[in-house]
Amino acid sequence: MRLTVNGKVMHLAHEMSISEFLRSRGLVEALVAVERNLDWTSREDWPAIMLQEDDRLEVVRIMAGG
Question: Where are the domains of the chain?
Fold first, then answer.
């Protein structure tokens, strides 16, 4: 399955949810925000949102600062 993540094309071997995708990339769900096809997604919905062919994701890491 082909996805575009933060502007880069990726290929996944099988269908997975946003949660599964983030874990596969070593990302901690509590520390990121995800936009899918120009819509911000809710963290509690990530386990149920299955990624589809040609989805476009923007994964933003939350950083503290001041």
Answer: 2-61
CATH architecture of the domain covering 2-61: Roll (3.10)
* Sign of the four-CA dihedral 43, 47, 48, 51: positive
- Among 62, 65, 54, which residue's Cα sits nearest to residue 5? 54
Sheet holding 8-11, edge to edge: 8-11, 2-5, 56-61, 32-36, 39-40
37 Cβ contact partners less than 8 Å away, ≥ 6 residues apart: 55, 56
Is residue 43 within 8 A of residue 31, CB to CB? The reply is no
Full-model pTM? 0.91
Percent of the chain residues topping a pLDDT of 70: 98
